[in-house]
Amino acid sequence: MFEQKRKWWKEGVVYQIYPRSFQDTSGNGVGDLKGITNRLDYIKSLEVDIIWLCPVYDSPNDDNGYDIRDYKNIMDEFGTMSDFDELLAGMKSRDLRLVMDLVANHTSDEHLWFQESRKSRDNKYRNYYHWWPAEKGTPPKRWSYFDVDANAWKYDEQTDSYYLHYFSIKQPDLKWENPKVREEIYDIIRFWFDKGVDGFRMDVIPFISKDTTYPELPEKYNGNFVSYYSEGPRLHEFLNEMNQQVLSKYDIMTVGEAPGITLDKALDFVDEDREELNMFFHFDLMSLDRDGHEVFWMQKEKWKLTEFKKIHSDWDAVFAKKGWGSIFLSNHDFPRSVSRWANDSIEHWHNSATMLHTFLLTMRGTPYFYFGDEIGMTNAGFEHIEDYKDINTINRYELLKQNNISLKDFIENEKEAARDNARTPMQWDETKNAGFTNSKSWIKVNSNYRKGINVASQEKDENSVLNYYKKMVQIRKTNLGLVYGAYQLLLDDNEYVYAYTRVLNSEKYLILLSFSELETTVEINEISFKNASLLISNDQAEKTKLDKVFTLKPYQALVYELA
Ligand code: NOJ
Q1: What is the pTM of this model?
Q2: Ligand 1 within 6 A of 205 CB?
Q3: Is 383 known to be catalytic?
Q4: How many beta carbons lie within 10 A of that of residue 537, not counting itself?
């Protein structure tokens, strides 16, 4: 019996593409849509079902496409609308679905709406954005992610007013409280659905509703602006309306990016009966190694495996009967998963990357893979500030300079934490620039493409990270218990091994994952191993163990089917 209703977006595996870094065909050093189309056979060979494409819309690229100038056009650097149509057709013919990125909390300041809005206080687009007239004094503090001064209000001389921008000054926040704005957004969504797009990943969706009296940050938030931003008064009204007016009319999926959302609020977004979203990305794991509210700073101590387990176990429990989770270890905003969650040293890299693949593909919830992780791409770890291209790193660096804070410490942090770690080009082969471009790449290519971290050499090697990945996806696909089965944590206080079972009716699995660079022995007493068989291991495994005692090699992963 399934506790959950079966759906394609629960059973599918998602592959996220950062188009700027995937494949250049035009020779401008930037990835493009044709590049993705040319690589569709490769993507299909990964046995994934759904592609999530980061923004490809017309944009001045202050934040690499997350600042949209025209929602119904394609960015010149990436190609044309006919390139897009060709890509979509190529996907459909291979039975791949396409999820686009909906960035609707804010637009670019170069969007026509904002260009008009800033012209005069009585412009017909004025009320599309949040304005604070200067005669009222300085507006109550709002924190900004990417502003050099971390100030989310920017003074605009033309109308002697401040506008609100939670991200960069070129990303003014839209005013969803205005019904016309919501109509515009729904119209954009319909435009892409009518083309045949299969869903949206919704950028910072919990931030869309604001208290338009703009009060001081209420004390209960204790300085935590992200939490405040994610609890706007009309948030659920807007999500429900969007669902009723557009989403529910199509067979599509939605996944919200959900900073600030805690376990107790989870079902408000994804309980099917509430008709809002299908899934979201929570930020508990992404904050695990960060310094409190300082989302861009690494904490000094290493994170603990018991905390990692607890986060996943708690979130699994929330969605056990209702709603549905998403499982991810990386994306374009965070470092590479193998460098962050395991060990990218030459000695441990293979087992680390494949162990993490095993984790993603044996948890309940839809797995999201970030491009390049399938071949175990690692952090770029740039040593020089000039190599960083991300507005986040660049603007925080400006702030440091103003405050005379040590550049050395900053670079040490960015080597581990920067978003650019995960934005270096896809490593296709051993030719110049890893086969990404034949001209100068927009961001440096990671030089380890010559050391086996590239698609071409891994395709040839039976034991490669890539080939393990493909086998593991197959295993998930052919064992529905790994998709829908109940999850039960074992060895909860062990700091070296993550062990759990997945059970669906008579299907039962035991998963053992070592997060340690040392050989580790564990004893599992809760389970009967009579007739257990090993489904997969990323290292040489001894014959199936039936004696409850397992010795795992460093970063070893083992999946057993229990009878
Ligand atoms: C979240 C996106 O993932 C990130 O890349 C972007 O900078 C911000 N939202 C602002 O759109």
Answers
A1: 0.97
A2: no
A3: no
A4: 21
